[in-house]
Amino acid sequence: MPQMSPLMWFSLFILFSITMILFNQMNFFSFKPDIIKSTKKMMMKSKDQTWKW
């Protein structure tokens, strides 16, 4: 079984690192949360409540 030189291991590490970073970046920026919309709806719902003490 042939051995890999240290430079080859380093280039493989760089390749996998760049792939992982790009994959994570794509997943992070493709997700659009609806947190702002849901908080506005919750605030409106809470204003509509009338409390009878």
From TrEMBL:
GO terms for biological process: proton motive force-driven ATP synthesis. It is found in: Mitochondrion membrane. F-type ATPases have 2 components, CF(1) - the catalytic core - and CF(0) - the membrane proton channel. Keywords: CF(0), Hydrogen ion transport, Ion transport, Membrane, Mitochondrion, Transmembrane, Transmembrane helix, Transport. Its main location: mitochondrion. The chain crosses the membrane at residues 6-23. The keyword Ion transport applies. GO terms for molecular function: proton transmembrane transporter activity. This is ATP synthase complex subunit 8. The gene is ATP8. GO terms for cellular component: mitochondrial membrane; proton-transporting ATP synthase complex. Pfam families: ATP-synt_8 (PF00895). It is a single-pass membrane protein. Belongs to the ATPase protein 8 family. It comes from the Eukaryota.
